[in-house]
Amino acid sequence: NQYVSEYVKANYDQVMVKVPKGKKAILKQLAQDNHITDDKGKISVNRMIIEALEEKYHVDLSRN
Hints:
This protein is mainly α. The protein has 3 helices and no strands. The protein has helices spanning 2-11, 23-33, 45-57.
């Protein structure tokens, strides 16, 4: 766990998004309905938000 925490801290910036109570479940369902998953195949609201930002604002948020 400590290795993972150190890796994440060294390789990622963190941005928090706050949504009204109850909306998180809607976002998760939307990600599931659209088969949006992370690298491990798990449903990912984070990946959905990143894809939306890339598409809407033409910004490259890939790890490269």
